[in-house]
Amino acid sequence: MSAASDRVPAREVVRLAAPALPVLAAEPLYLLVDTAVVGRLGAVALAGLAVAGVVFAQVTSQLNFLSYGTTSRAARLHGAGRHGDAVGEGVQATWLALGVGVLVLGVGQLVAHPVAQALGDGGAIADAATSWLRVALCGAPMVLVTLAGNGWMRGVQDTRRPLRYVLAGNGLSALLCPVLVHGAGGWAGLGVVGSALANVCGQTVGAMLFLVALVRAARAGAVSLRPAPAVLRAQLTLGRDLLARSLAFQACFLSAAAVATRFGAATAAAHQIVLQMWFFQALVLDAVAIAAQSLVGAALGSPERGAQRARALAGQVTRYGLVLGVGFGVLFAALSGVLPPVFTPDPAVLAAVPVAWWFFTAMQPIGGVVFALDGVLLGAGDAAFLRTSTLAAAVLGFLPLTWASLAFDWGLAGIWTGLAVMMVIRLVAVGVRARSDRWIVIGAVRS
């Protein structure tokens, strides 16, 4: 058992987690606003947003190594007292973000229509999804720059400025979305395309704020702003495992969207509502994980009792995640009849929501522990294990049950049973790993 001196004061965890909480919640909260605004256009528009939104979110989120990988590497350097090198990780991650973002934009424009046709089963839903996706892809480079900015700032334990930057961008999007979608005065608005345009405007503002902060920090620390091939290669090595992990999530949620769409617009729209709630709570629970990434990385970067501190942190954040998960479960159970009508007045959609809602509610405590321990292992740079365990959970849990629900007409119950089984497998995997010492590697950079 760790000595009492190795425990991190709760206020230190709160100091990092509290600003990270609204940062993590801002994007899914905006998507909930977006869902409510577009939902007023009808089930077809909302189903189109469901298809396109999942595609865009998965394309960008699978590149989250720009954030999580950068946090891990920057935190170790920060813990070793090498602040300039930690900022340098942010510089190189930003170069990667810009390069990959331009690639995503170009390739995305080419495949937007066929992907929307495949997932939306053709027709009006696919047309709405294509229109939204073509505009939203213009914001991809900005989203990736923001991921990189969050990554290096979390690594140096600065979570306050990212809060201001992200809220500025998402606040602008939230203000523009109703106007661009539904119009104002004598203008009829742009419909579902207005939602995508509002996204791009907000993402651009947020990315510019992160870029300005990075340039200032680099100049203050005499850090080069040029690409450094050796650091880029090291980041890509870590990113390879995190990318494979993200691809597993992408396969799962794209499959779920495709299957839900084939049960009709009402089922697809209901799935979109509950799935956005899932993304919202998952990232909110990740606030504790963000603190764990930064603190565990810094502890392992220091040779002085780093292992003991990391073990103590793992136990702490597990307890915090469980408490938060139970709290969310109680909250969403109490709001089961209140929240869904906020997103749509369509009776058919509302009738389909409860099937998924109770799965979503019951999984909250499991999610709280899983996301917390994900943060510990990500902070330790244990990406290879997270890759393998997530792939196993997807192949053994989510994917077979999701596609079986289409074959056997299980509907949303089958899709959400798949997600539940996936979460249980992940819980067992990260729990066993955290109890071992195989994730503990001391040093400024994990080999």
Automatic annotation (TrEMBL):
It holds the Pfam family MatE. It is found in: Membrane. The keyword Iron-sulfur does not apply. InterPro entries: DinF-like, MATE_fam. Its main location: membrane. It comes from the Bacteria. The keyword Transit peptide does not apply. The chain crosses the membrane at residues 37-57, 93-112, 132-153, 165-190, 196-217, 242-265, 277-300, 320-343, 355-377, 384-404, 410-429. It is a multi-pass membrane protein. Keywords: Membrane, Transmembrane, Transmembrane helix. NCBIfam families: matE (TIGR00797). Belongs to the multi antimicrobial extrusion (MATE) (TC 2.A.66.1) family. This is MATE family efflux transporter.
